[in-house]
User: Fold this.
Amino acid sequence: MNKKRILIGCEESQVVCRAFRDKGHEAYSCDLIDTRGNPDWHIKGDIMDNLEGWDLIILHPDCTAMAVCGNRTYAKGNKGYQERLDAIEWTLNLWEQAIKSCDKVLLENPGSVIFTALRKVGVNIQYVQPWMFGHKETKKTGFALHGLPEIKETNNVKKYLDSMPNKEKHKVWYASPGPSRKRDRSETYQGIADALADQLG
Assistant:
């Protein structure tokens, strides 16, 4: 195996980081806050200051202002619109700095306006669902890809969704309010993390 140095940016859960480490790679998460995982594999700091020296960069920028499910707050004409514009500008800058620093970059977000902006500058965009990777749930997720192939599904379980209650198959949408709701909703599904590690590692 060709061991790679991999940076998982804007991740504190270490779900993706751990999936790559389990495959034998030198993978580190990076976030402004402490990790819930192993601090030895975590860079606590600004992602913009830690983009050099990697074979692969995977980015999970904050989706709060950019996700289309937040349009009632962040779309044009609403109180959070400037926050959305600022988030788009910051994320585009992150993308540009990442692809200057590394030949292989993936940026992940749920259904998000960032992909409209990235597509305008010629970036390849792919959408996946957790049910393509063994999870009996829905959550439209986009990947912006630089120097990388599209991710292939590994275990399609869509056939089971029709018979499931909405609160089970749309768990992310129906997540209960609470202090950890944002964190829990943004965590990468293990099946998707494993697919990234298997196919990009």
Remarks:
- The two ends are 9 Å apart (CA to CA).
- The domain at 5-200 is CATH 3.40.50.150 (Rossmann fold).
- The beta strands are 5-9, 26-31, 42-44, 56-59, 105-110, 124-128, 141-146.
- The chain has seven helices and seven strands.
